[in-house]
Design brief:
The structure holds two protein chains of two kinds. By secondary structure, chain A is of the alpha/beta class. Chain A folds into two domains: 230 residues, P-loop containing nucleotide triphosphate hydrolases (Rossmann fold, 3-Layer(aba) Sandwich), CATH 3.40.50.300; 63 residues, 2-Layer Sandwich (Alpha-Beta Plaits). Helix content of chain A is 36%, strand content 27%. Chain A contains twelve helices and 13 strands. The two termini of chain A are 34 Å apart. In chain B, α3 runs antiparallel to α7 and α5 crosses α6. By secondary structure, chain B is mainly α. In chain B, 49% of the residues are buried. Chain B has one domain. Classes of the chains: A alpha/beta, B mainly alpha. Chains A and B meet through α3 and α4 of A and α1 and α4 of B.
Chain lengths: 324, 243
């Protein structure tokens, strides 16, 4: 069974995954696939079930139902096979605070079964590629938050995993550290590693991900490439327009029904629109009617964040389910 | 690399991180040494009646406490979760953790015993039986500490939970009062206490005299307790470690 699936291009396959905590349904028939060598962003609001999914895929908790296959193995049935081929970076940087950085990496190598010489060489290699050589002899607990995060990711790569799970990798990091981490992720993906990413940072997801799944209330509500997800909200959502004279919001909105919302910012109207062509036609008619003309206009492609917010709006649940 | 090699790696790391620290070694030695010295100063001839019991008590308290501290600390720091994400079985983790806790208990007990032999002239009638008592006690009580502490989140919870059985065990296990002098109604309870049989082995090993005249019964019961705790520890760890 392992070999059949190994030969395919699917690294992670999940079908009908279910998990409940008492009466609370955390995952309700979740299905998705992650292609090898891709970055898969698993997005959703707090309590959507993202961490529950990762915990099941990594063998930390048991599922109630459904099928899970990682690199051809099922972590519930063959945990050692699967765990030896995946790397996991949890939301918290969880290496041993009292151990020196080099020792932390070597210990992880030992636990993952690397022979002595190889784990020493691998530890040096990772310290170097994550820019931590100077801190090799410092205890992990003494590092800055950014450095801790980097070493935690390095530790997850000690055994050269084929699939890397990253749960909120840049949470709490400053901008340069987060940017540097994204660079590391790109590098390991270019080396052929598959990355399963959960993040609240949608800019990060848009920048890194090939494929996206959006989880809301334990159900997948959208799945596809980043471009496909974005088309869910139309090709263009936002217009910036400068009129020749003063314009009232109510007049603008009543003359242009294709405008969903309008906000004036430093003399420029920022318009959230339903349809670009319709809006432009209505704007021209509005100008003609009120004796204005358009001095400047700019259009902005929708971002993944726009798509995400729109999806959340479509699937808003009044009960606000929240996972444990 | 086999699961056994990984268990040894876990154990080495724990000794490096926790058990090898001088304050812990001192704590593990000072408490029983002062207690035995107090008894010795009061009754130089009678200290031998309680010294093996105090060594057994030290194993019980020291090993369960240390296992509890390590497990709850690692739970809080997230490092236990880190270990659970690695390709090691729950049994491997339990074995590794118990091994380091047991090594700590055995090391401190050996230093204490050598001190008693050298400075107070404690006899060692059967060193082999004494050694087996130390090893079985250290292993059994380490496993007991792991089983109890994995079910809770904080050290104080683990200590509170463990004190429910540790103090009653002291009372019924012949630590301060020889089995032969115990009231008849306590004896059946004493027989089902793991501490009783460890203390019996230590008494037989030191003075050659105990309630059981032969080491076979306490040895067999101690081995059974050890096997039973081994069997329970893996599933308990799997069930509670991520909670």
């Amino acid at each position: 069974m392992h070999q059949d699936e190994q030969e395919t291009q699917v690294a992670v396959k999940v079908h009908g995954l279910r998990k409940s905590y008492g009466s609370l349904v955390a995952l309700d028939g979740v299905s998705f696939e992650v292609s090898r060598g891709h970055v898969f962003a698993y997005l959703g609001p707090n309590g959507a079930g993202k961490t529950t999914t990762i915990n099941i895929l990594c063998g930390l908790i048991e599922r109630d139902g459904g099928e899970v296959s990682i690199l051809g193995g099922d972590v519930a049935r063959d945990p050692v096979f699967v765990k030896s081929r995946i790397g996991v970076v949890t939301e918290n940087s969880n290496l041993y605070p009292e151990l020196r950085c080099r020792r932390d990496l070597e210990y992880m190598g030992e636990i993952y079964g690397l022979p002595g010489a190889e784990r020493r060489r691998r530890a040096e290699e990772l310290l170097d590629s994550f820019g931590l050589t100077e801190k090799a002899d410092a205890p992990f607990g003494s590092l800055s938050r950014g450095m801790k995060r980097r070493l935690t990711i390095a530790a997850a790569l000690v055994h050269r995993p084929e699939v890397l799970f990253l749960d909120e990798p840049t949470t709490g990091l400053d901008v340069p550290s987060a940017k540097s981490l994204r660079g590391f992720v790109r590098r390991i993906v270019s080396d052929g590693t598959t990355v399963f990413l959960t993040t609240h940072n949608l800019f990060e997801a848009e920048e890194l991900a090939d494929d996206v799944a959006v989880l809301v209330g334990g159900r997948i509500v959208a799945r596809g490439s980043v471009a496909e997800i974005k088309t869910r909200v139309g090709s263009v959502r936002n217009l910036a327009v400068r009129f020749s004279g003063d314009v009232l919001a109510d007049a603008l909105k009543s003359a242009c029904p294709a405008i969903r919302s309008a906000k004036l910012q430093e003399g420029v109207w920022l318009l959230d629109v339903v349809n670009l062509h319709e809006t432009l036609g209505q704007l021209l008619a509005f100008c003609q009617q009120h004796g204005h003309w358009i001095q400047d206009v700019g259009a902005k492609e929708p971002t993944l964040e726009d798509a995400f917010v729109s999806l959340l709006g479509e699937t808003a649940q009044p009960d606000g389910r929240d996972g444990p | 690399m086999s699961q056994i090699a990984r268990a040894f790696a876990i154990s080495r790391k724990d000794i490096e991180s926790y058990y090898g620290k001088p304050p812990l070694l001192t704590w593990g030695l000072l408490f029983p040494a002062v207690l035995i010295l107090a008894v010795y100063l009061k009754d130089q001839a009678g200290y031998l009646a309680v010294a093996p019991g105090i060594i057994g008590m030290t194993l019980l308290f020291g090993n369960t406490s240390m296992a509890a501290i390590v497990i709850t600390f690692e739970k809080r720091a997230g490092t236990l979760e880190r270990l659970l994400l690695a390709p090691v079985t729950a049994r491997t983790i339990v074995f590794g953790k118990a091994l380091s806790a047991a090594a700590y208990g055995i090391a401190t007990s050996i230093v204490l015993t050598v001190g008693l032999v050298v400075f107070l002239g404690m006899p060692l009638a059967r060193p082999d039986v004494f050694a087996i008592g130390l090893v079985l006690g250290a292993g059994t009580f380490s496993l007991l500490g792991i089983i109890t502490s994995v079910m809770v989140k904080e050290v104080f919870e683990a200590m509170t939970l463990m004190n429910f059985f540790r103090f009653p065990l002291l009372f019924v296990s012949g630590v301060f009062m020889p089995m032969s002098e115990m009231p008849g109604w306590i004896k059946p309870v004493a027989y089902i206490s793991p501490l009783t049989h460890v203390v019996e082995l230590l008494h037989l090993g030191a003075s050659g005299e105990a309630h059981f005249t032969s080491p076979w019964v306490p040895l067999a019961v101690s081995v059974l307790f050890f096997i039973a705790f081994c069997a329970v520890a893996g599933p308990a760890f799997r069930r509670y470690a991520t909670r």
